[in-house]
Write a structure and sequence with these properties.
Blueprint lengths: L2 H15 L2 H21 L7 H24 L3 H15 L8 H15 L7 H11 L6 H13 L4
């Protein structure tokens, strides 16, 4: 089942359950999918990689919006963003924990042959591709920086 089919099915369920917050989040996901399909010229649908990028971008936007709303003492708006983020995360692959992320990054660092902070770009290029959707870009970047600055890895 494609992402679009799953979302459409879940929209129907949310409508029947009269779950307005979930319905709003699902409709925003469907909107992103439809926009991406029309951008590409339509017809064949989206690849899994493109779907993953769409969801990751949407999740990042919700996370950042929630942070801004929290800083501005708008907890009501922050809760809406957090609720939509939770729905979006249901469609994303399971996120790596800190220990798993570190282990995967150590393996990538050894494979790339990185020796210090000057190799950050090479490691980030590989790590970003391999860990797409499994970890936040900021988390990957800070972990890679910490591992490369610590010479005993």
């Amino acid at each position: 089942m494609t992402l679009k089919e799953r979302v459409e099915s879940d929209i129907k369920q949310a409508m029947l359950a009269r779950d307005k917050p979930r319905l709003q989040a699902l409709r925003s996901i469907k909107s992103l999918i439809l926009l991406a399909e029309t951008e590409k010229g339509g017809g064949e649908g989206l690849t899994q990689d493109t779907e993953l990028k769409l969801l990751t971008k949407a999740a990042k936007q919700r996370r950042e919006s929630a942070e801004v709303y929290t800083q501005q003492n708008r907890e009501d708006l922050a809760q809406i963003e957090i609720g939509e983020l939770a729905v979006i995360e249901e469609y994303l692959p399971k996120q790596l924990g800190e220990g798993d992320l570190r282990a995967r990054l150590l393996e990538i660092i050894q494979r790339v042959g990185a020796t210090g902070p000057s190799d950050l770009g090479r490691v980030m290029g590989v790590a970003s591709k391999e860990l797409a959707g499994q970890a936040d870009g900021r988390a990957i970047s800070s972990a890679v920086g910490a591992l490369l600055n610590n010479t005993d890895f």
